[in-house]
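Need residues for this backbone.
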């Protein structure tokens, strides 16, 4: 399994995937990376190098949305790319204070 993504901190992703998959390869790209044709060819080459045929590409929803471009359609047509959903969750008791900060800021700056 090859995970690729343009996220700032992949530590939690790496920990999660290592607990779910026997073999995990992480390909890090800069945060908000715009993928090039060469990036995708390199990922496919790495995927095809696995002779078992069991490898997949895994990425975030954000990164997959950057690949839904006409110029990549033919290249990615038969590529097994799956999405790892990413959720944002506030620590206990901090959600309310965050909401209060946002509402107070909006109220003061209307």
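Answer:
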């Amino acid at each position: 399994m090859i995970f690729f993504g343009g996220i700032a901190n992949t530590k939690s992703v790496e920990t999660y995937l290592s607990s779910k998959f026997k073999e995990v390869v992480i390909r890090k790209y800069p945060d908000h990376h715009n993928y090039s044709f060469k990036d995708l060819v390199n990922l496919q080459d790495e995927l095809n190098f696995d002779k078992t045929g069991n490898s997949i590409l895994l990425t975030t929803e954000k990164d997959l949305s950057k690949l839904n471009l006409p110029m990549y359609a033919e290249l990615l047509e038969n590529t097994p790319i799956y999405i790892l959903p990413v959720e944002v969750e506030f620590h206990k008791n901090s959600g309310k204070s965050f909401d209060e900060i946002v509402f107070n800021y909006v109220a003061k700056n209307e």
